[in-house]
Amino acid sequence: MKAARYYDRGDIRVDELPEPEVLPGTVGINVAWCGICGTDLHEYLEGPIFAPGHGQTHPISGEGLPVTLGHEFSGVVYAVGEGVEDLEVGQHVVVEPYIIRDDVDTGPDSRDYHLSPDMNFIGLAGRGGGLGEKVVVQRRWVHPIDNSVPLDQAALIEPLSVGYHAVERSGAKAGDVALVGGAGPIGLLTAAVLKAQGVTVAISELSPLRREKALEAGVADYALDPSQVDVAEEVRKITDGKGADVAFECSSVQAVLDTLMDALRPTGVLVVVSIWGKRSDFDIHKLVMKEIDMRGTIAYVNSHPATIELVESGKIDLSPFITGKIGLEGLVDEGFDTLINRNETAVKILVSPSGEGL
């Protein structure tokens, strides 16, 4: 089978690999679609980050470079291992792509398995990935999805779960006003969850295409251009002078973080969703004087079932966020290059490892 593998910074190759073995307790999946994530771009430009370092192996997967990329993916079950009795061949699924130690409690009541030692991700630290034609995944991390949800849209369940967990962390509720800083994929999908839960949403974004996408998709009530307006002042106008109840930093840009702090009401909640590759020059005095509650969020924890329900019920339509589809051979030249150098022109680019559906 074909797979896109990460060898080093700036070095991704499409290799021919043997098909993975379906072991007891695992599920064999024909990958339908895999999204290109910002994390993949960071690995390509600045890594290894989540991928094992040079000459190292990941302590759980036991694998080192090269590793198959891709952690946002959907597919169809082609085989089930011994002991897997609640999934069947032909079923549509998505994957919660964790690599977690076997002794960690990952049961339905756990709220912290995603913070366990050496946690990492399928498609970054080994165990195959969604940028291969086939992948074998432990049953715990495979989630069935109704056939009424197209498989291309299902590939966005993983990043949507990031947004779901961020909203959950914020405590936002119906009737609140939220400001989302950055309308990239995670910002837009976080906004989608907020709207599905009855929150009024304003988005701050420089890209005209992404602002338009936010409004067209119905995930934002207001799309503000920070180069043209004072975003904090506009939010105060929307809220009768109070400020936003919650804010989500989805850009890893210092100016955005500063804007969100200014736009929040006293005792508001600021959630940092993006992965920062550098230290922030944060004005801690503003946090103190407004009694802002600042929270970090990473990935998701038992978030997939509720996220899938939002999509299956029709409360969230993922189709507007798919702006490109490519084959594996175009991964770098068509996919990565667009998202690195012309990211204002795209939201989510999906890859079909097998070429089906193109």
Automatic annotation (TrEMBL):
Gene3D superfamilies: Medium-chain alcohol dehydrogenases, catalytic domain, NAD(P)-binding Rossmann-like Domain. It holds the Pfam family ADH_N. It comes from the Bacteria. Its cofactor is Zn(2+). PANTHER family: GALACTITOL 1-PHOSPHATE 5-DEHYDROGENASE, SORBITOL DEHYDROGENASE. Residues 10-328 form the Enoyl reductase (ER) domain. The keyword Zinc applies. It comes from Arthrobacter koreensis. Keywords: Metal-binding, Oxidoreductase, Zinc. This is 2,3-butanediol dehydrogenase. Belongs to the zinc-containing alcohol dehydrogenase family.
